[in-house]
């Protein structure tokens, strides 16, 4: 195996171990020693790919986000051109993604609230997703009202998923998807009214 491939393989093992620790035991338990033990690698291989544990934590988050994007993009593409189907596909695929592996939900929405680098990356990712939602709603260059609704939706949906995963909202996934889809559609319709000045 070429040296570059061996490095990539070791990096992937470290990310897998990082996801397991971060997604089950939390940020405090995610240490260089713990990650290396989980990956069954010597600590020197950790520093081959990451400067410190913070870099690995952010890389774990980025990988989960990339996997989520791939999953959602495929679902939306399968939904065709029907706007309602595309919204439902976005909601359903996101819910299935975090429900099928609860570690993902913890990485995406819970861990690292006091971790500056991860919080910054989470804000960047949320902003990127809100931008895509605004573009989807507008169908062209989003106006300010589209951006307002998109930011509200992305933040609210993240909070909804967190509370659902934690059991605070005791409904099955189909009920959650139906309710969230209706909220997305209703707020999307509200964007047009936001363009009209109050009073």
TrEMBL record:
This is HTH tetR-type domain-containing protein. The keyword Disulfide bond does not apply. Residues 8-68 form the HTH tetR-type domain. Residues 31-50 bind DNA. It holds the Pfam family TetR_N. Keywords: DNA-binding. GO terms for molecular function: DNA-binding transcription factor activity; transcription cis-regulatory region binding. It comes from the Bacteria. InterPro entries: Homeodomain-like_sf, HTH-type_TetR-like_transc_reg, HTH_TetR, Tet_transcr_reg_TetR-rel_C_sf.
């Amino acid at each position: 195996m070429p040296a570059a491939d061996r490095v990539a393989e070791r990096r992937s093992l470290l990310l897998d171990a990082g996801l397991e620790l971060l997604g089950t035991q939390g940020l405090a338990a995610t240490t260089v020693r713990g990650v290396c033990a989980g990956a069954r690698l010597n600590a020197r291989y950790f520093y081959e790919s990451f400067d410190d544990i913070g870099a690995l934590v952010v890389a774990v988050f980025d990988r989960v986000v990339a996997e989520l994007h791939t999953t959602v993009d495929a679902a939306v593409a399968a939904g065709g051109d029907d706007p309602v189907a595309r919204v439902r596909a976005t909601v359903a695929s996101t819910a299935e993604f975090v429900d099928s592996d609860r570690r993902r939900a913890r990485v995406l929405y819970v861990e690292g609230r006091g971790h500056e680098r991860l919080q910054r990356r989470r804000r960047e990712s949320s902003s990127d997703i809100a931008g895509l939602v605004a573009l989807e709603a507008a169908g062209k260059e989003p106006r300010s009202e589209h951006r307002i609704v998109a930011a509200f939706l992305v933040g609210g949906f993240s909070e909804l998923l967190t509370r659902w995963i934690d059991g605070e909202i005791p409904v099955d996934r189909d009920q959650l998807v139906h309710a969230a889809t209706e909220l997305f559609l209703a707020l999307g319709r509200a964007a047009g009214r936001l363009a009209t000045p109050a009073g």
